[in-house]
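lol so apparently i was supposed to do this last week
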Amino acid sequence: MAEKRWISETLFDDLGFRMTYQVERVLHETQTGHQHLVLFEHRFFGKVLMLDGATQVTSKDEFVYHEMMSHVPLLAHGKPRQVLIVGGGDCGIAEEVLKHESIERVTQVEIDASVVEFSKRHFPEFTRPVLGNARFDLVIGDGMDYVAGTDRRFDVIIVDSTDPLGPGEVLFSERFYVACKRCMADGAVMVTQNGVPIFQADELSTTIAKLRGLFADGYCYTAAIPTYVGGHMAMGWATDDARLRRLPITTIARRYRKAGRFPTRYWTPEVHVAAFALPRFIADKVAAAGSSVAPVARDRRVRPIRFGRPARSRRRS
Ligand code: SAM
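anyway here it is w/ S-adenosylmethionine bound
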């Protein structure tokens, strides 16, 4: 019997560290126009999607990241109507967001159409409730161009991106955050995928420094995602309403009931509030982040910023 293949994450090669999966079956492997994509079956984690050598999602633990990137900002905001997801290829985040009945429209801007196409075949549990939903629209394009050019305003922005490599790099840039700030409505919240602090401490502190130069409150919260190896995963937090991450459990629980009390497997009102209580080594990193750019005048008029090519849009495929 042929030796089973092992596939390694190469994200932390520079640290001399690799997490490796023994592969039961490779379901799909290709070089897309933007990144290397491989999907395989693993006997414990189920389906595993990797982009450019980094785990993106597994069937076994997807619920942790998807619930914490969605329900925390949405319930902290309290009455979100317009939501923007940047990245989010597999639609796992959109599936959670659409559980909130009060949300009128969810727009997902994904750079790589093939990630969505292939998620339709391999992750129907995410894509089926999303791509058929009248409240959802998909834009294929670079998130940077979209936020630089749109005249819409959003109550919540969720940046479900790859790591700051290749197409994802620009989504960690100051000009991206400046453009996101421009299309956020009053009292809006933005959350970002921000890596695992034990390995990616600089990524966290530089992001928070940029956010603090633009928002009254730049911070992060954490969750433990087994296949985002390294213990705590950090999710960047940015808003001009510094009260939103200090809401009591009773308020969050009340809002959850009002939002339809949909089933969750990780998120609870208690976990929500506790996620902002940072372990010392992460809190020290956040505290040391300081702010790096002069606060931008809170100009309310919506003026497109001409950075890149105009975004292409395609309603529900
Ligand atoms: N949860 C995963 C993580 O934490 O690594 C991310 C999941 S999701 C698959 C990431 C998506 O971001 C990918 O589908 C990728 O194509 C998309 N992406 C990367 N750079 C982008 C950009 N500049 N604009 C829009 N989408 C982008």
